[in-house]
Automatic annotation (TrEMBL):
This is E3 ubiquitin/ISG15 ligase TRIM25-like. It comes from the Eukaryota. InterPro entries: E3_ubiq-ligase_TRIM/RNF, Znf_RING, Znf_RING/FYVE/PHD, Znf_RING_CS. Residues 19-60 form the RING-type domain. One of its GO terms (molecular function) is zinc ion binding. Keywords: Metal-binding, Zinc, Zinc-finger. It comes from Ictalurus punctatus. The lineage of its organism: Eukaryota, Metazoa, Chordata, Craniata, Vertebrata. The keyword Zinc-finger applies.
Length: 356
């Protein structure tokens, strides 16, 4: 807002240069005993309308009597400088489309917070105070601020629309009731009271339902967490079961393979013994053939006196050594049947669970 040449930040915070009542730059500023600053006109009007007690509109501090208002000359000098830095055209407090207070000084109006149907005027938060503090004004009909007071008046008689015709569903003034002799009519205030009485149980029921729904949602969230935790526990248990089953299968597999390995070792030992026997026989034959060659090559006169070499006993037929294929085949068949049975049982179990 302020230019770089402004000295205001060196003197006061910018929010202290605004009147708490009209929310614009202070005009003819005065300082009241509690230390807060106001426009002379704004605070004077406020205290003029205050029937019950005299208090500061900003901090609500009460004073035993109306303070004497004197212009704060130092603040006046500051505001004179501020007026040059902050052009009035830049200060826009109330948009045109919002209802404004009918009591505020022209050009410095605040937004209206209530409209009094009895007074036919709209008031800002400050000027609406008498209607809440004065017993004389307590019975006035206050409503949400309206942009145009004429909307509350009969277009024909310019009277307040205080009556509601039930038959025509329209608000009328008392003068218009002459044209509704047979209609069921009542005051707008009664309609407002009845409507408020009718909506209160609905609001209470809505609040109760909101609370109940919130509780149900909380219970549902708790239920969801329980489901998640239970699913985690079930998954862990299921994994342990299948791990145990896999361990059993792996253990059986190891035993079956060990059986085949043992059969292999036993069969190889038998073949190794036969091989050793054949190797020994082959060595004996080789030695015998060497002696035979020696005899054949002996051309002495009495070679016939040499002993004839004797053939060793025949080795006989090889012993047929085979793995116990039948035992392995029976084992494989049993495993296949077990696998088929297990697969069928698991399928039936899971299908039954899905049907549930």
């Amino acid at each position: 807002m302020a230019s770089n040449s402004s000295i205001i930040p060196l003197l006061l915070p910018e929010d202290e240069l605004l009147c708490p009542i009209c929310q614009t730059l202070l005009k003819n500023p005065v300082t009241i005993p509690c230390g807060h600053n106001f426009c002379m006109t704004c605070i004077s009007k406020h205290w003029k309308l205050a029937f019950a007690s005299i208090f500061c509109p900003y901090c609500r501090r009460e004073f035993p009597s109306k303070p004497v208002l004197k212009t704060n000359t130092v603040l006046c000098a500051i505001m004179e400088h501020v007026g040059k830095v902050f052009p009035t055209s830049e200060i826009v407090l109330v948009p045109d489309e919002k209802p404004i207070c009918n009591i505020c000084e022209e050009g410095r109006e605040l937004s209206a917070v209530k409209t009094c149907v009895t007074c036919l005027a709209s008031f800002c938060s400050v000027h609406a105070t008498p209607h809440t503090t004065s017993q004389a004004l307590a019975k006035h009909c206050m409503c949400t601020p309206v942009s145009d007071i004429k909307d509350l008046l009969c277009k024909k008689h310019s009277k307040v629309l205080e009556v509601f015709c039930m038959n025509h569903g329209a608000a009328i003034c008392w003068q218009c009731t002459a044209k509704h002799p047979k209609c069921n009519i009542c005051s707008v205030e009664e309609m407002r009271t009845d409507w408020k009485a009718a909506i209160e149980p609905v609001a209470t029921e809505a609040q109760d339902r909101k609370k109940a729904t919130s509780e149900l949602l909380e219970a549902l969230n708790t239920m969801s967490e329980g489901i998640k935790n239970a699913a985690v526990k079930m998954t862990e248990d299921m994994q342990l079961c299948f791990e145990a089953l896999m361990n059993t299968i792996n253990h059986a597999q190891d035993r079956a393979i060990s059986f085949i390995e043992a059969e292999k070792m036993e069969a190889l030992q038998k073949t190794e013994k036969q091989k050793e026997r054949l190797d020994d026989h082959l060595l004996s034959i080789s030695l015998l053939m060497d002696k035979i060659d020696e005899c054949i090559n002996n051309d002495s006169y009495f070679n016939f006196l040499l002993p004839l070499p004797l053939l060793p006993a025949e080795v006989g037929q090889l012993q047929d050594v085979q793995l116990d294929g039948q035992a392995v085949e029976r084992m494989i068949l049993d495993i296949q049947q077990l696998n088929s049975s297990l697969e069928s049982q698991l399928s039936t179990m899971l299908q039954r669970r899905e049907e549930i």
